[in-house]
Write a structure and sequence with these properties.
The chain is of the alpha+beta class. It contains 12 helices and 11 strands. It folds into 2 domains: 4-94, PH-domain like (Roll), CATH 2.30.29; 112-331, no CATH class. The chain binds zinc ion.
Length: 335
């Protein structure tokens, strides 16, 4: 190692003593006027240079050697025994590359937190929230929607009862999540169906009118039961309030429940479910239809018709990639 210059402070006075130091046979030799130190490396502590400040080598007896020779200090850091934190800190702080890498890692962690962390927290919360709170979020959302966007159904009572009975019969023969089926008229929603937290499934009059077969309506209901089964609307509502508020919500702040409920109707209208959620609900519907011996193509048929229906605010028809989504239902075998 080439000798490097520095200033020695004896720990007693503030006076700097110019010295030259070098590594020699596993020891640090420090020489200056009336100074001759020979220190084993395991008695040395190295504090790396921070910014423009000089590096600092702590020696026994409270003495310190200050040096601005970064290359020499780096070499010394490598020579120190073991992986001391000082050594690592030195390497990390001394290299711009590591600083940039750390910045990139930080950005990725924050991004991942928002992209996956919040949805993951919402998913966990959605499955740990007491059912009574979930039901309450659903009923408060429904109350808001009935105030602003839903009217009583104008479908004949017999028609409503027939569809309700058919769904109930299928759900007796296969496991459906607990649900409550409602028919509502809604000029705002158009031909549509939606699932609220707690299992309320709303089917609009326009959707029933758009269908050419009851099995098409049942197929849409099955898709909504998929959303119920996976608690998608609750997850959507929880995601919108962020990770911190999710924690508050699951620890039982009732006030935040009302906020969640208030935000859900517009969330369902504006952003809708994610592609992953739609895929989950579609997968559920496909299995459901096959078990019910309803041709899966019924779902593709009504999806295709929804796609051609002009509507600003559709939930089903705003679902992404209708044609792509319909494909598995077209190719799936009937029972
Ligand atoms: Zn959906």
């Amino acid at each position: 190692m080439t000798p490097f210059a520095g200033d020695l402070f004896d720990g007693l006075t503030s006076r700097a003593h110019p010295v030259v130091a070098r590594l020699e046979a596993g020891r640090l030799r420090v020489d200056g006027e009336e100074i001759a130190l020979d220190v084993p490396l395991d008695q040395i502590e190295l504090a790396p240079p921070v910014g423009a400040a000089r590096g600092l080598i702590r020696l026994p007896g409270g003495q310190e050697l200050h040096s601005g020779d970064a290359a020499a200090l780096a070499e010394l850091a490598h020579a120190l025994p073991g992986h001391s934190p000082e050594r690592w800190a030195y390497r990390l702080e001394g290299r711009l590359l590591y600083a940039i890498a750390a910045l990139i890692v930080s950005i990725i962690v924050v991004f991942a937190g928002l992209r996956w962390g919040v949805p993951a927290a919402a998913q966990v919360a959605a499955h740990t929230l007491p059912p009574v709170l979930e039901t309450r979020i659903g009923s408060e959302s429904l109350a808001l929607m009935e105030k602003f966007s839903l009217e009583p159904s104008k479908l004949p009572a017999a028609r409503q009862q027939a569809l309700t009975r058919q769904l109930a019969e299928h759900c007796r023969r296969q496991a459906c999540p607990p649900y409550r089926l409602l028919f509502r008229n809604s000029p705002m929603f158009g031909p549509n169906a939606m699932a609220l937290p707690g299992g309320t499934v709303i089917v609009t009059d326009a959707l029933v009118k758009l269908s050419r077969h009851d099995e098409e309506v049942l197929a849409v209901m099955a898709h909504e039961l998929g959303h119920v089964r996976h608690r998608h609307s609750l997850r959507l509502a929880l995601q919108s309030i962020g990770a911190g508020a999710i924690l508050v919500a699951i620890t039982g702040d009732i006030g935040s429940i009302t906020d969640i409920a208030a935000g859900l109707p517009s969330l369902l209208l504006q952003s809708g479910y994610s592609r992953d959620m739609e895929r989950e609900a579609d997968a559920y519907a496909l299995g459901w239809l096959q078990t019910a011996c309803i041709p899966p193509s019924r779902f593709a048929d009504i999806l295709g018709r929804l796609d051609r229906t002009p509507s600003d605010t559709g939930l089903l028809d705003s679902h992404p990639g209708s044609r792509e989504r319909a494909q598995p239902f077209r190719v799936a075998p009937d029972c």
